[in-house]
Amino acid sequence: MELHTYEKEFFDLLKKISHYEEAVVLMHWDLRTGAPKNGAEDRAESIGQLSADIFNMKTSKRMKELLDALYEKFEELPEDTKKAAEWAKKDYEENSKIPEKEYKEYVVLSSKAETVWEDAKEQSDFSLFAPYLKQLIEYNKRFITYWGYEGHPYNTLLDLFEPGLTVDVLDELFSELKKAIIPLVKKVSASTNKPDTSFIHQSFSKKKQKDLSLYFLKELGYDFNGGRLDETVHPFATTINRGDVRVTTRFDENDFRTAIFGTIHECGHAIYEQNIDEALSGTNLSDGASMGIHESQSLFYENFIGRNENFWKTYYPKMKEASPEQFRHVALEEFVLAVNESKPSLIRVQADELTYPLHIIIRYEIEKAIFSNEVSVEELPALWNQKYEEYLGITPPNDAQGILQDVHWACGDFGYFPSYALGYMYAAQLKNKMLEDLPEFDTLVEKGEFQQIKEWLTEKVHVHGRRKKPLEIIKEATGEELNVRYLIEYLKNKYSNLYLS
Amino acid sequence: MELHTYEKEFFDLLKKISHYEEAVVLMHWDLRTGAPKNGAEDRAESIGQLSADIFNMKTSKRMKELLDALYEKFEELPEDTKKAAEWAKKDYEENSKIPEKEYKEYVVLSSKAETVWEDAKEQSDFSLFAPYLKQLIEYNKRFITYWGYEGHPYNTLLDLFEPGLTVDVLDELFSELKKAIIPLVKKVSASTNKPDTSFIHQSFSKKKQKDLSLYFLKELGYDFNGGRLDETVHPFATTINRGDVRVTTRFDENDFRTAIFGTIHECGHAIYEQNIDEALSGTNLSDGASMGIHESQSLFYENFIGRNENFWKTYYPKMKEASPEQFRHVALEEFVLAVNESKPSLIRVQADELTYPLHIIIRYEIEKAIFSNEVSVEELPALWNQKYEEYLGITPPNDAQGILQDVHWACGDFGYFPSYALGYMYAAQLKNKMLEDLPEFDTLVEKGEFQQIKEWLTEKVHVHGRRKKPLEIIKEATGEELNVRYLIEYLKNKYSNLYLS
Question: Which of A115, A172, B205, B283 lies at 20 to 30 Å from B110 by C-alpha?
Answer without folding.
Answer: B283
